Amino acid sequence: MKSTKKSSKEFDGVFSTAVIPVALLAAILVYVFVFGDGSNFVGGSNSNVPLPGNFYGIIYKGGPIVPIIICLLLTVLAFGVERYLAISKAAGKGKVNLFMKGINEKLENGKIEDAKTSCNEQKGSVANVIFSGLAKYQAMEKNNILTTEQKVVSIQKEIEESTSLELPALEQNLVVLSTIASIATLMGLLGTVIGMIKAFSALANAGAPDSVQLAAGISEALINTAFGIGTSALAIIFYNFFTTKIDKLTYSIDEAGFTIVNTFAAKN
After folding, report:
1. What is the pTM of this model?
2. Which of the chain's termini has less CB crowding within 10 Å, N or C?
Protein backbone atom coordinates (compact mmCIF):
# COMPACT_ATOMS: atom_id res chain seq x y z
CA MET A 1 0.00 0.00 0.00
CA LYS A 2 2.80 2.42 0.92
CA SER A 3 4.73 1.75 -2.30
CA THR A 4 1.57 2.26 -4.32
CA LYS A 5 0.89 5.59 -2.62
CA LYS A 6 4.52 6.65 -3.08
CA SER A 7 4.49 5.88 -6.80
CA SER A 8 1.16 7.66 -7.13
CA LYS A 9 2.56 10.78 -5.46
CA GLU A 10 5.65 10.66 -7.69
CA PHE A 11 3.44 10.45 -10.77
CA ASP A 12 1.30 13.36 -9.54
CA GLY A 13 4.44 15.43 -8.97
CA VAL A 14 5.81 14.74 -12.46
CA PHE A 15 2.41 15.36 -14.01
CA SER A 16 1.93 18.67 -12.20
CA THR A 17 5.40 19.86 -13.21
CA ALA A 18 5.12 18.83 -16.85
CA VAL A 19 1.59 19.99 -17.67
CA ILE A 20 2.19 23.73 -18.04
CA PRO A 21 5.38 23.53 -20.21
CA VAL A 22 3.78 20.91 -22.46
CA ALA A 23 0.57 22.95 -22.69
CA LEU A 24 2.55 26.08 -23.58
CA LEU A 25 4.48 24.26 -26.32
CA ALA A 26 1.26 22.77 -27.71
CA ALA A 27 -0.43 26.18 -27.62
CA ILE A 28 2.42 27.85 -29.54
CA LEU A 29 2.45 25.10 -32.17
CA VAL A 30 -1.31 25.28 -32.64
CA TYR A 31 -1.22 29.09 -32.82
CA VAL A 32 1.58 29.20 -35.40
CA PHE A 33 0.89 26.19 -37.59
CA VAL A 34 -2.88 25.77 -37.34
CA PHE A 35 -4.39 29.20 -36.69
CA GLY A 36 -1.56 30.99 -38.52
CA ASP A 37 -1.63 28.79 -41.61
CA GLY A 38 -1.68 30.87 -44.79
CA SER A 39 -4.79 29.09 -46.08
CA ASN A 40 -6.80 30.95 -43.45
CA PHE A 41 -5.97 34.39 -44.86
CA VAL A 42 -6.49 36.48 -47.97
CA GLY A 43 -3.60 36.02 -50.37
CA GLY A 44 -2.25 33.00 -48.49
CA SER A 45 -0.31 35.08 -45.96
CA ASN A 46 -1.11 35.49 -42.28
CA SER A 47 -0.02 39.13 -42.51
CA ASN A 48 -3.27 39.80 -44.39
CA VAL A 49 -6.81 39.82 -43.08
CA PRO A 50 -8.54 36.46 -42.44
CA LEU A 51 -10.79 34.98 -45.09
CA PRO A 52 -14.47 35.85 -44.54
CA GLY A 53 -15.88 33.63 -41.81
CA ASN A 54 -12.56 31.83 -41.19
CA PHE A 55 -12.49 31.25 -37.43
CA TYR A 56 -8.87 30.11 -37.29
CA GLY A 57 -7.68 33.28 -38.99
CA ILE A 58 -9.75 35.44 -36.63
CA ILE A 59 -8.21 33.70 -33.60
CA TYR A 60 -4.70 34.17 -35.00
CA LYS A 61 -5.30 37.89 -35.29
CA GLY A 62 -5.85 37.95 -31.54
CA GLY A 63 -2.10 38.45 -31.21
CA PRO A 64 0.64 37.01 -28.98
CA ILE A 65 -1.60 36.81 -25.91
CA VAL A 66 -3.71 34.12 -27.60
CA PRO A 67 -1.20 31.24 -27.20
CA ILE A 68 -0.83 32.12 -23.52
CA ILE A 69 -4.57 31.88 -23.00
CA ILE A 70 -4.68 28.65 -25.03
CA CYS A 71 -1.97 27.32 -22.70
CA LEU A 72 -4.12 28.21 -19.70
CA LEU A 73 -7.14 26.54 -21.31
CA LEU A 74 -5.21 23.32 -22.01
CA THR A 75 -3.88 23.38 -18.44
CA VAL A 76 -7.41 23.68 -17.06
CA LEU A 77 -8.58 20.75 -19.19
CA ALA A 78 -5.58 18.61 -18.20
CA PHE A 79 -5.94 19.25 -14.47
CA GLY A 80 -9.71 18.92 -14.74
CA VAL A 81 -9.40 15.39 -16.13
CA GLU A 82 -6.63 14.51 -13.64
CA ARG A 83 -8.61 15.73 -10.62
CA TYR A 84 -11.78 13.97 -11.78
CA LEU A 85 -9.94 10.64 -12.03
CA ALA A 86 -8.12 11.18 -8.72
CA ILE A 87 -11.25 12.13 -6.75
CA SER A 88 -13.28 9.33 -8.34
CA LYS A 89 -10.56 6.89 -7.27
CA ALA A 90 -10.56 8.39 -3.77
CA ALA A 91 -14.31 7.79 -3.51
CA GLY A 92 -13.67 4.09 -4.08
CA LYS A 93 -15.88 1.50 -5.71
CA GLY A 94 -19.61 1.99 -5.62
CA LYS A 95 -21.54 4.81 -3.98
CA VAL A 96 -20.06 6.34 -0.84
CA ASN A 97 -23.45 6.81 0.85
CA LEU A 98 -24.31 3.11 0.49
CA PHE A 99 -20.86 2.16 1.74
CA MET A 100 -21.28 4.40 4.78
CA LYS A 101 -24.71 2.95 5.50
CA GLY A 102 -23.25 -0.55 5.48
CA ILE A 103 -20.37 0.48 7.76
CA ASN A 104 -22.75 2.07 10.27
CA GLU A 105 -24.93 -1.06 10.36
CA LYS A 106 -21.92 -3.32 10.93
CA LEU A 107 -20.60 -1.08 13.71
CA GLU A 108 -23.97 -1.09 15.48
CA ASN A 109 -23.99 -4.90 15.34
CA GLY A 110 -20.39 -5.15 16.51
CA LYS A 111 -19.15 -6.69 13.24
CA ILE A 112 -15.80 -4.90 13.12
CA GLU A 113 -14.07 -7.48 10.92
CA ASP A 114 -16.92 -7.33 8.41
CA ALA A 115 -16.60 -3.54 8.39
CA LYS A 116 -12.85 -3.81 7.72
CA THR A 117 -13.55 -6.25 4.89
CA SER A 118 -15.97 -3.74 3.37
CA CYS A 119 -13.22 -1.10 3.54
CA ASN A 120 -10.81 -3.38 1.69
CA GLU A 121 -13.44 -3.96 -0.98
CA GLN A 122 -14.42 -0.29 -1.29
CA LYS A 123 -10.85 1.12 -1.25
CA GLY A 124 -10.36 4.86 -1.70
CA SER A 125 -9.61 7.62 0.80
CA VAL A 126 -12.82 7.26 2.84
CA ALA A 127 -12.28 3.52 3.24
CA ASN A 128 -8.62 4.04 4.18
CA VAL A 129 -9.52 6.40 7.02
CA ILE A 130 -12.29 4.16 8.29
CA PHE A 131 -10.03 1.10 8.16
CA SER A 132 -7.41 2.89 10.26
CA GLY A 133 -10.08 3.90 12.77
CA LEU A 134 -11.44 0.34 12.97
CA ALA A 135 -7.95 -1.11 13.44
CA LYS A 136 -7.37 1.31 16.32
CA TYR A 137 -10.83 0.43 17.65
CA GLN A 138 -9.83 -3.24 17.90
CA ALA A 139 -6.45 -2.38 19.45
CA MET A 140 -8.11 -0.26 22.14
CA GLU A 141 -10.59 -3.04 22.96
CA LYS A 142 -7.62 -5.26 23.84
CA ASN A 143 -5.88 -2.52 25.83
CA ASN A 144 -6.29 -2.96 29.59
CA ILE A 145 -4.06 -0.07 30.63
CA LEU A 146 -5.72 3.06 29.30
CA THR A 147 -9.01 4.44 30.58
CA THR A 148 -12.08 4.60 28.33
CA GLU A 149 -11.61 8.34 27.80
CA GLN A 150 -7.97 7.83 26.81
CA LYS A 151 -8.96 5.07 24.41
CA VAL A 152 -11.58 7.32 22.79
CA VAL A 153 -9.01 10.10 22.41
CA SER A 154 -6.57 7.63 20.86
CA ILE A 155 -9.15 6.50 18.30
CA GLN A 156 -10.04 10.11 17.48
CA LYS A 157 -6.36 10.95 17.03
CA GLU A 158 -5.86 7.99 14.69
CA ILE A 159 -8.80 9.06 12.52
CA GLU A 160 -7.59 12.67 12.42
CA GLU A 161 -4.07 11.62 11.43
CA SER A 162 -5.39 9.34 8.68
CA THR A 163 -7.63 12.13 7.41
CA SER A 164 -4.72 14.59 7.35
CA LEU A 165 -2.78 12.14 5.17
CA GLU A 166 -5.62 11.64 2.69
CA LEU A 167 -6.96 15.19 2.23
CA PRO A 168 -3.84 16.78 0.67
CA ALA A 169 -3.98 14.22 -2.14
CA LEU A 170 -7.60 15.18 -2.82
CA GLU A 171 -6.91 18.92 -2.89
CA GLN A 172 -3.73 18.71 -4.97
CA ASN A 173 -3.67 20.98 -8.07
CA LEU A 174 -6.92 22.72 -7.13
CA VAL A 175 -4.89 25.84 -6.36
CA VAL A 176 -3.77 25.81 -10.01
CA LEU A 177 -7.39 25.90 -11.18
CA SER A 178 -8.28 28.73 -8.79
CA THR A 179 -5.22 30.71 -9.90
CA ILE A 180 -5.99 30.26 -13.59
CA ALA A 181 -9.56 31.40 -12.94
CA SER A 182 -8.11 34.83 -12.07
CA ILE A 183 -5.12 34.90 -14.42
CA ALA A 184 -7.12 33.98 -17.53
CA THR A 185 -9.41 36.98 -17.10
CA LEU A 186 -6.43 39.28 -16.53
CA MET A 187 -4.65 37.94 -19.62
CA GLY A 188 -7.82 38.50 -21.63
CA LEU A 189 -7.98 42.09 -20.37
CA LEU A 190 -4.30 42.59 -21.22
CA GLY A 191 -4.92 41.38 -24.75
CA THR A 192 -7.94 43.66 -24.95
CA VAL A 193 -5.89 46.67 -23.90
CA ILE A 194 -3.16 45.87 -26.43
CA GLY A 195 -5.75 45.43 -29.17
CA MET A 196 -7.47 48.70 -28.35
CA ILE A 197 -4.12 50.51 -28.36
CA LYS A 198 -3.55 49.27 -31.90
CA ALA A 199 -7.07 50.27 -32.89
CA PHE A 200 -6.70 53.81 -31.56
CA SER A 201 -3.28 54.07 -33.20
CA ALA A 202 -4.97 53.36 -36.53
CA LEU A 203 -7.57 56.05 -35.84
CA ALA A 204 -4.85 58.54 -34.92
CA ASN A 205 -3.19 58.34 -38.33
CA ALA A 206 -3.25 61.57 -40.28
CA GLY A 207 -5.76 61.54 -43.10
CA ALA A 208 -7.83 58.41 -43.60
CA PRO A 209 -7.56 55.85 -40.78
CA ASP A 210 -5.82 52.55 -41.54
CA SER A 211 -8.90 50.32 -41.79
CA VAL A 212 -6.89 47.08 -41.82
CA GLN A 213 -4.96 47.99 -38.67
CA LEU A 214 -8.16 49.23 -37.06
CA ALA A 215 -9.93 45.95 -37.78
CA ALA A 216 -6.94 43.95 -36.55
CA GLY A 217 -6.81 45.91 -33.29
CA ILE A 218 -10.51 45.45 -32.59
CA SER A 219 -10.27 41.75 -33.49
CA GLU A 220 -7.33 41.29 -31.12
CA ALA A 221 -9.26 42.99 -28.34
CA LEU A 222 -12.40 40.89 -28.77
CA ILE A 223 -10.67 37.53 -29.28
CA ASN A 224 -8.57 37.88 -26.15
CA THR A 225 -11.59 38.96 -24.11
CA ALA A 226 -13.63 35.97 -25.27
CA PHE A 227 -10.84 33.47 -24.69
CA GLY A 228 -9.94 34.89 -21.29
CA ILE A 229 -13.49 34.92 -19.96
CA GLY A 230 -14.24 31.45 -21.36
CA THR A 231 -11.12 29.91 -19.81
CA SER A 232 -11.76 31.61 -16.48
CA ALA A 233 -15.37 30.41 -16.42
CA LEU A 234 -14.30 26.82 -17.14
CA ALA A 235 -11.67 26.93 -14.38
CA ILE A 236 -14.25 28.24 -11.88
CA ILE A 237 -16.73 25.50 -12.83
CA PHE A 238 -14.09 22.78 -12.41
CA TYR A 239 -12.87 24.23 -9.11
CA ASN A 240 -16.34 24.45 -7.58
CA PHE A 241 -17.27 20.99 -8.86
CA PHE A 242 -14.20 19.34 -7.34
CA THR A 243 -14.36 21.21 -4.02
CA THR A 244 -17.99 20.11 -3.67
CA LYS A 245 -17.05 16.46 -4.24
CA ILE A 246 -14.16 16.77 -1.75
CA ASP A 247 -16.49 18.31 0.83
CA LYS A 248 -18.84 15.33 0.46
CA LEU A 249 -15.97 12.90 0.97
CA THR A 250 -14.76 14.87 3.99
CA TYR A 251 -18.26 14.82 5.46
CA SER A 252 -18.40 11.04 4.98
CA ILE A 253 -15.05 10.67 6.78
CA ASP A 254 -16.24 12.86 9.66
CA GLU A 255 -19.48 10.91 9.89
CA ALA A 256 -17.64 7.60 10.02
CA GLY A 257 -15.20 8.87 12.65
CA PHE A 258 -18.08 10.12 14.79
CA THR A 259 -19.84 6.76 14.51
CA ILE A 260 -16.71 4.76 15.37
CA VAL A 261 -15.95 6.87 18.44
CA ASN A 262 -19.53 6.85 19.71
CA THR A 263 -19.89 3.09 19.20
CA PHE A 264 -16.69 2.45 21.14
CA ALA A 265 -17.72 4.80 23.96
CA ALA A 266 -21.15 3.16 24.20
CA LYS A 267 -19.81 -0.40 24.33
CA ASN A 268 -16.86 0.25 26.60
Report:
1. 0.82
2. N
